Amino acid sequence: MTVVGEIGTKYNWEERKNYCLREVYTNMTQLIDDSNDPKNKPLATFKPLEIIDLIIEKDDIEWKKEWRDQLAQLDMFTSGKNQSQPREPIRKVPYKFKYHFKDETGKESKMMIEDWEVGALYWRCVDKGATPPEAAKMVKEKFLNQLCGPDKDTHFYVGTILAHPKSWVVIGVFWPKLKPRKASTPTTGTLFE
């Protein structure tokens, strides 16, 4: 594999927008319909009309036994002396995080966040001395107030769950700043795209 370039965040994520915002859903009913036959769409970009809250729910502190058993199996892609070592499962976050939002029709939905950055941020906060409830609140602060703040043009990367293809989860957040529109005549206040 060869890295041939980078799609960074320069110019308010302009180059990323060319890829990420080609097809944007704003209606949950349409998104769910398109996950069925004949389209069978498993991934999409979704733009909520309004993000109401980020919900924190307590979850199990350990992985389910069947998941631990699967993770304990040998890794067939590892070579050398580590080949016979079982894999160590990643630490389980003892909370679930969900976005509560409205679509363009005013329909409210709650969607679980499965973005790996949530877990990484949670454990980074705990490792720096935060209690589990404090770390969960820090995740909420970042993923609600920073990524979805009033100055952000927030979109969700969403995907279906293999076992439940009509259920959607947030797998990432796209959050460039809102870009002021160019006005042809002087105005008061700020216009946004």
Describe it for me?
With 193 residues, the chain is α+β, with helices and mostly antiparallel strands. The chain has a domain of 115 residues: OB fold (Dihydrolipoamide Acetyltransferase, E2P), CATH 2.40.50. It contains five helices and seven strands. Strands 1-2-6-7 form a four-stranded mixed beta sheet. The two termini are 38 Å apart. The relative contact order is 0.17. The C terminus is likely disordered.
Helix content: 25-40%
**Any guess at the CATH architecture of the domain at 26-59 and 94-174?**
Beta Barrel
The end-to-end span amounts to: 38 Å
Give the uncertain stretches in residue-range form. 183-193
Counted by DSSP, the helix tally is: 5
Query: What is the fold-level CATH name, i.e. the topology of the domain at 26-59 and 94-174?
Result: OB fold (Dihydrolipoamide Acetyltransferase, E2P)
- Tell me, briefly, the overall form: globular
